[in-house]
Amino acid sequence: MERSNTKKANTKRPEIADVVISGLGPTGLVLAHILGKRGHHVVVLEREPVFYGNARAVYTDDECMRIFQSIGMAEELQKDMLLDTPVQLARPDGTVLSQYKPLKRPNGWPVVNFFYQPYLETSLTHGLSKYSNVDIRRGRELVNFSQDADTVTIVHQATQQYRFHDSSADKTEGDGNLDVQEIRARYLVGADGGRSTVRAKLGIEMTGKNFPEPWLVVDLKQKDRNKGLRHMPYFNFVVDPDLPVVSCVQPDGHHRFEFMLQKGQTAEYMERPETVRELLAKYVNPDDFEVNRKLVYTFNALVANQWRERHVVLAGDAAHMTPQFMGQGASSGVRDAYNLGWKLSDVLSGRAHESLLDSYARERFHHAKAMIDSSVLLKDVVSMTSPIATKLRDGVLKTIQAVPFLKKWSEEGGFKPAPVYEAHQYLGLPRTKRRSPEGKLIPQPTLRGFNGRRILLDDVLGESYALIGFECDPSEVLSAESKAILSRLNAQAVQIHAYAGRPQGRILRDLNPNLAEVEDIHGEFQQWLKGVKTQKDQSIVLLRPDHFVFALVAPEQLNAAVQQLKLQLNLSASPCQMPQDEALLV
Hints:
Layout: E1 2-3, E2 15-22, H1 26-37, E3 42-46, E4 59-60, H2 62-70, H3 74-78, E5 81-83, E6 87-90, E7 96-100, E8 113-115, H4 117-127, E9 134-138, E10 140-147, E11 152-158, E12 181-190, H5 197-202, E13 206-222, E14 235-238, E15 245-249, E16 254-260, H6 267-270, H7 273-280, E17 289-304, E18 308-309, E19 312-314, E20 320-321, H8 329-348, H9 358-382, H10 387-402, H11 404-411, E21 446-448, E22 454-456, H12 457-461, E23 466-470, H13 480-488, E24 492-498, E25 515-520, H14 524-532, E26 540-543, E27 549-553, H15 558-569
Helix pairs in contact: 1-4, 1-8, 8-9, 10-11
């Protein structure tokens, strides 16, 4: 629920919450959904008094769609997206040098999804209204915080100077009262962007590079949906050495152009209406569009040196800043929220020791850094202006197109960092071979339920740990202690059968009422299992709540894997006693 900033301060004692999130961008929104869905009391502080209505991010991938699925928002968000849009490197005359057009859906969703950020954020914000335990405070800025042994106390007040809105807007109550308030929480998450106040208060520096090359971004809206863009159906990096350009399709008649400034060109010159019109005229009829925004900007490739200080955690742009060329800035923040959200929830609920949070930065740092490095490399490819360098680049791209396996690698996105955690840096058993699945995201096949309906794997697994057995009930080999551990973690047992291979007959077999049984209708799970198994015998998959693999083991090794899970979570009899029943896994 959203609240205004008119609540009077309680001078006797601070307000109490489980988690305070500073920042209401995609990272903060997704984290609020994850924690809200799990029943935690969340307060979100957003310094802007009203929604910032301009687009920044434009793209997300199948991994993030899977995360949106986990919070029940994927189908709603997909209504306002362009799906399966090819991404091209092309010359100004339209000659295609390379295409990225993946049609496989390993995560159950399209890999390429272009959106209009105001629509996405509006939908995510409205989606939070179903959680009475999530409280959004607009027009409130975090000004300080302090930590003790168990909590963090956040001081916030009415925003004094807005970043995106009229500074003359009403910011105070009464006679200039800034309405200073306090919240005492278990955790504070700084999802407050590249100029993070939380990061600054912690004194954390960032490492990386600031790129001085300025670009002009122009956001357009079609006046008539039947005019203006039919000749530009795809996303294009126009690799013109005289004027590198990005042409980005967006839904509902929105479109973005980005033009790289040449030496001697100033922001004032480039942002003039006459200059913008001249640049647009190379690609569209300017009269067919409204210009919603024109802005010269530079970009950064930076990573915070530290992501957590006791009860305070950084996420999204506050932790890492990614150049826009891979479209992974907002998506990296969404991944942060997903990795951090279930860990915070398990710690808050007593299902894990606080040390679990140490794995957040260890797991996310390397993947976020890999996305940054890939974005910088793509920037270098796109923005070449040297005739010799561009000729060499075009030759390499031509060779890739001529070699079948390289062309397939390019079209399917082999250059994109995979959802794999760095060896020895993740929660899970160590990988024994390169193909071992531990620390990797499990694919999401489409399955067939008992009711004859198709269902995605994650909707079967739920939001906690899970055991998956192929053609076997994975809970049958569990010891009493393992069942107690997994019951405490609310684990779900799943048996996947081959399509049309479910046991049948006149006599009802002894069914486990807590076992989810589904069929691998396209053989996708069986194919994945065949590719990652390191032994010929039957295997059981132990999954984390974020659907990364904790362990793939033979049945006789499962209890040992559960013990390793207990050790890595640092579980003990406190703060919650181990349950005596085995309700979930009998």
